[in-house]
Amino acid sequence: xxxxxxxxxxxxxxxxxxxxxxxxxxxxxxxxxxxxxxxxxxxxxxxxxxxxxxxxxxxxxxxxxxxxxxxxxxxxxxxxxxxxxxxxxxxxxxxxxxxxxxxxxxxxxxx
Length: 111
Prior knowledge:
By secondary structure, the protein is α+β, with helices and mostly antiparallel strands. The protein has 3 helices and 5 strands.
């Protein structure tokens, strides 16, 4: 069964954690892979997130040792249009798998 990224996001947001754990709040970072640098000066890149391609700001993950041009192929956690940090491919795959499992559970609850 293929679950698209938009379905995963909708399922994750349909039951926010703060409704279950009111004293605990969290932000959701979605794994994506940088596939293209669109603007070096503004530190913008295209990220592929489950087949959905979006432009994000990569300023948080670049420095002198890892300039924008070196970011193509990197896996990152994306939150509100920003690549917050780099992660390895295994972490990305595990997180995406968890999102698919959440979506499947949510689909089962909704039926």
